[in-house]
């Protein structure tokens, strides 16, 4: 069990903070978009109550210390444009996974790179982590580009790891070590 002392991060343009019930409509907008969900591990949401359940689970997991999921809010407008999470913490091996999504209108602005950089600075400095992993569909070029920009290393291909709405998908597996992050040019 991992307790999170810091759950709010700010950058030049963004504020990351725990999800609240008021974020349901904004999250639904993101997760009901088939283009956003094209390479996600489940089908697009069809009902607002899926957003409510997602937020309830995130709130419980945050309190239990098993997942750090935050809303990504544009500081200037207060609009929630996506979410970012560290999850599947493995205490013995000091690793976890990262997951993220932005609404389509927020793509191509560097928001995710900015949000993940802030979270990784925090994660490697304050949490007992040695390694962070990402599981990406190899057709998801935008996500792989974002990971490469952050210094994640493409470590291999896991074949037919997912079956989403009947579609069999591979995983491009990425890893980032604390030593990679610390050595990264700023
Ligand atoms: C994955 C995802 C978050 C990437 O979004 P993105 O907008 O491409 O990524 P970033 O926020 O880091 O933006 C980077 C782009 O913004 C551009 N950009 C514009 N202004 C910028 C700025 N001030 N700083 C940095 N980059 C900037 C960059 O040039 C870059 O474009 P490029 O990749 O064509 O070179 C997005 O495609 C998404 O949410 N997809 C759906 C959900 C998903 O697949 N999640 C991942 C599952 S593994």
UniProtKB/TrEMBL annotation:
The keyword Nucleus does not apply. Residues 14-180 form the N-acetyltransferase domain. InterPro entries: Acyl_CoA_acyltransferase, GNAT_dom, Ribosomal_N-acetyltransferase. Pfam families: Acetyltransf_3. One of its GO terms (molecular function) is protein-N-terminal-alanine acetyltransferase activity. One of its GO terms (cellular component) is cytoplasm. Keywords: Transferase. This is GNAT family N-acetyltransferase. It comes from Massilia eurypsychrophila. The lineage of its organism: Bacteria, Pseudomonadati, Pseudomonadota, Betaproteobacteria, Burkholderiales.
